[in-house]
Design a protein that fits this description.
The mean pLDDT is 96. The protein has two domains: 9-125, Rossmann fold; 128-313 and 344-366, Dihydrodipicolinate Reductase, domain 2 (2-Layer Sandwich), CATH 3.30.360.10. It is built from eleven helices and 15 strands. With 368 residues, it is an alpha/beta fold.
């Protein structure tokens, strides 16, 4: 269903924890054409302090029953994604779910089937497709400067030695670093290289008092499609000395990038990006203070040059979603991509549980 291009898309945000407060409320509000009409929260005073003009409702059902709401954003605990998204779809709403989409592949398949039956848009918030370093890396790869890629290493490491008392760090389905940060780095690898032929994952609990995985190390192989390529995806909460975010080696050169995209920290500090109407944001939003480096050998000597200086832009997710709802662009994260990512996360868990490599070749059919 296409929404009229002259009317705002009216949004209900369900949940005002970290995801709703830090990411979705500022991003929805920063996109002309989207109107944040209500926030579902049990802490109305907190919402009122940040968004005094936005009504607060106590239950998701109140938002789902409101005929004035076009789009529902689910930014609640992982285990609640499936039931809330399903209820919103059955109420006739378009739905965005924060990652991870669900906690099992079966739940993901159920939601995708309901969305098809209801003829409603359903997508997942994979914001790190719009990280500055990832956008720059895509430009470097497209330029051919690195040649044929043989090694790709993506580290999403942090130093958080204390285990907080929150659901993300409890022993629950869909909790832990693999479903949290792993959902980002796997999605980025899929965007760059497509679906692997097999996957091996190691999970660990490394911090004192850890209740769920706070370490993952995955290797993706591409078999006959690209037998030499090795993709390493790594995340840990116990890394005092941070190394590169990306290390990529090809037959002609390398790309190395230190530091994380700045948008999350800017949003945590209260930043509110504004769309400039031309595909980007106003001011210096998303600028990377530490751009990557491309190293190539010329006449036997290593020559380094800065990678492209590209601004990150999380607003682009909502800009594309708005255009899609108006019939003007593809959905930002396709159903096939949602399914493929959830299948890889699930098979990764199976690999870690049984201690061996698992095949993922059949999942290539999702995108071929």
């Amino acid at each position: 269903m296409n929404l009229m291009s002259t009317s705002p898309v009216r949004v209900a945000l369900v949940g005002y924890g970290n995801a709703g407060r830090i990411f979705h409320a500022p991003l929805v509000s920063g996109m002309p054409g989207l109107a944040l009409r209500c926030i579902v929260s049990s802490k109305p005073e907190t919402v009122a302090g940040d968004w005094p003009a936005v009504p607060v409702v106590a239950t998701p059902q109140q938002a789902f029953a409101d005929p004035e709401i076009d789009l529902v954003v689910i930014a609640t605990s992982n285990q609640s994604h499936h039931p809330l998204a399903k209820e919103a779809l059955l109420a006739g709403k378009h739905v965005v779910v924060d990652k991870p989409f669900t906690v099992t592949l079966a739940q993901a398949e159920d939601l995708l089937a309901v969305a098809r039956a209801q003829e409603r848009v359903l997508t997942v918030f994979q914001n790190r497709r719009w990280d500055a370093d990832f956008l720059a890396l895509r430009q470097v790869l497209a330029s051919g400067k690195l040649g044929r890629i043989v090694h790709f290493e993506s580290h999403f490491d942090r130093y958080r030695p204390d285990v907080p008392s929150r659901w993300r760090d409890d022993d629950l389905p869909g909790s832990g670093l693999w479903f949290d940060l792993g959902a980002h780095v796997v999605d980025q690898a899929l965007q760059l290289f497509g679906c692997p032929e097999d996957l091996q994952l190691d999970l660990a609990l490394q911090r004192d008092g850890a209740r769920t995985n706070d370490y993952f190390h995955a290797q993706l192989r591409y078999g006959s499609r690209d037998p030499g390529l090795r993709v390493i995806l790594h995340g840990s909460a116990l890394v005092p000395a941070l190394g590169p975010r990306f290390t990529v080696h090809g037959t002609l050169g390398s790309f190395v990038k230190h530091g994380l995209d700045t948008q999350e920290d800017a949003l945590k500090a209260g930043g509110r990006p504004q769309w400039n109407g031309q595909g980007g944001t106003l001011g210096d939003w998303g600028r990377d203070p530490l751009v990557g480096e491309v190293v190539r050998h010329v006449d036997g000597q290593a020559k380094a040059e800065p990678a492209p200086d590209v601004a990150g832009n999380y607003l682009a997710f909502y800009a594309q979603l708005l255009a899609h709802l108006r019939g003007q662009a593809p959905v930002p994260v396709k159903a096939t991509e949602v399914h493929q990512l959830m299948a890889l996360l699930s098979r990764g868990e199976a690999s870690a549980r049984h201690g061996h490599r698992v095949s993922t070749a059949d999942l290539r059919e999702d995108t071929e």
